[in-house]
Amino acid sequence: MARPGSGLLVPVNGLGYPPQNMARVVVWEWLNEHGRWRPYGAAVCHHIENVLKGDARGSVVLGQVDGQLSPYVIDLQSMHQFRQDTGTMRPVQRNFYEPSSAPGKGVVWEWENDNGSWTPYDMEICVTIQNAYEKQHPWLDLTSLGFCYLIDFNSMSQTNRQSQRKRRLRRRMDLAYPLIMGSIPKSQSWPVGGSSGQPCSCQQCILVNSTRAASNAILASQQRKLYSGAAGNAGTAGTLTMVRQSNTFAGTSLWSSTSVSSGMQSPLSNSNFPCSPVMPSLSSSHGHHALTINGQNNLNRPGTQRITMGAARGTIPPGVPALPVKNLTGSGPFHPALAGMTGILMCAAGLPVCLTRAPKPILHPPPINKSDMKPVLGVNGMCRKTKKKHLRRGKNPEDVVRRYTEKIKVVPDEDCTICMERLVMSSGYEGILQHKGIKPELVGKLGKCGHMYHLLCLVAMYNNGNKDGSLQCPTCKTIYGEKTGTQPPGKMEYHVIPHCLPGYPDSKSIRIVYDIPAGIQTNEHPNPGKKFSARGFPRHCYLPDNEKGRKVLKLLIMAWDRRLIFTIGTSSTTGESDTVVWNEIHHKTEFGSNLTGHGFPDPNYLDNVLTELSAQGVSEDNLKD
Fold this sequence. Notes:
Layout: E1 24-31, E2 37-39, H1 42-54, E3 59-61, E4 72-75, E5 80-83, E6 89-97, H2 102-105, E7 107-112, E8 118-120, H3 123-134, E9 139-141, E10 149-152, E11 157-160, E12 166-173, E13 179-180, H4 203-232, E14 239-245, E15 255-261, E16 281-285, E17 288-292, H5 336-348, E18 383-386, H6 397-404, E19 405-407, E20 443-446, E21 452-454, H7 455-463, E22 471-472, E23 479-480, E24 490-497, E25 509-515, E26 519-520, E27 531-532, E28 539-544, H8 547-561, E29 566-569, E30 579-582, H9 605-615, H10 620-624
Antiparallel strand pairs: 1-2, 1-6, 1-13, 3-4, 4-5, 5-6, 7-8, 7-12, 9-10, 10-11, 11-12, 14-15, 16-17, 18-24, 19-20, 20-21, 22-23, 24-25, 25-28, 26-27, 29-30
Helix pairs in contact: 4-5, 6-7, 8-9
GO molecular function: ubiquitin protein ligase activity; zinc ion binding
Keywords: Cytoplasm, Metal-binding, Notch signaling pathway, Repeat, Transferase, Zinc, Zinc-finger
InterPro entries: Deltex_C (IPR039396), Deltex_C_sf (IPR039399), Deltex_fam (IPR039398), WWE-dom_subgr (IPR018123), WWE_dom (IPR004170), WWE_dom_sf (IPR037197), Znf_C3HC4_RING-type (IPR018957), Znf_RING (IPR001841)
């Protein structure tokens, strides 16, 4: 059934915050490796809120409500999620949404992944999709949110605008997220001080405390002006008292007041600043003016200062100073506390202030026509595929070991670092492993590096590896022969696009697209016969189209042919097992920014990735062969 109305190109942001005396929906979120805030489920959020009511400085064991989250614990004092088996820590935040939004109604939007299961969208995207759905838009473009996807509500599908790949999506009902009333909770974006009452002495907390002291002084001054003005204007009909909330620090109510006669226009009204997201909107009801404030600082979100509005997000009006605040680590032009203090002082002087929203990662370039994709200079073709026939198996283990070692007549009295027995003694694998022609007491020296081991130990190490005809010294990692990996079959595409990367204004860009489908593990993988998942494919990566960038591409193609780019294992970020993961060769997946650390500018990246490729046995010397 077709949905009436026009499509939505720039989505309406539904994340505006209601006034402090109204209800809010609470969603707890964690920060993933791509800089995206991923929501916990509604049941988990209810559990966290219940623990928070009892002990705001305590810990939340997520496995008590969701068995799949049993390794995870949230420390409410430091606002971090801790994975007990790996030690991985991730920031968490307590975010607020309108009760009428998707989380308040229990609506969940999900897309179908390669494994056939369903993955929920980020909460911000879920809210945006639900808003468009309720307004009966036939489609929704997510480009403005940093994703090159088009949502089609008629076919309930998501289309990648670059690869044209389609995925199913669905809308389902679940438990509504917890609802809270009352004042906005204090920020917990950094560890709070102890219960002794002694303030923290770190530089960040000193700045925050000094800013709060300044805000309290301004608040007292504004209140005195308000009371004196109210006494002087008592009995004046039609006087509008307009209250403006400072959006600088969570947990600190900063108010300034201005009296405006009913026959006059407020100098800070939306008629003067129609696009300013921090300017209050005034509405009329029964002849009296009412105030709607849609905005709240979100220092609960580490690294983000976000100002939103219930309607469309606009631009900053001319003449209004903007204070960009990027994150709490100081990478922005201003320290957040300094920007906040400046904003408070400017508000006290009656000057309008607009805090800019922290930028989002630019993951993809603008849309590109196929005719604009050109071959890379000096590289044959634009696509490579790997299949099982690309595997090269070596001869039997004894032949491989003998090929790269020399026999030692005089054996030194030192340890074999494989079995930890003395070299003058028999191998620790004696009685466990038997091979004709290799006695347990034989010792060999690797040709390039000179490290010595029992030959039987080298055979055992080879049998436990990929058995591809190569050896790697366990001490210095020197590779003998051509090392290959266990990457599943897939496709690698590469071409030049007419856009430049940050830091390379004079060069076009090389785009690499990896695509590996889900499948069944084979004997070379951890769990033969079991399915493996492939999350996030196709994956887009970028290099500058210059001499060194083209050299890196050639080596990456060689590593792809040797099946070294990916492997099957356990994700270090999500903890999911039996999934396709990167194999120690870093790629840049962020095109137009470097907010997540996986983008540009990064002047050392090309040299670093050359070193990583060399560690896998793929070096510039191979290009000369």
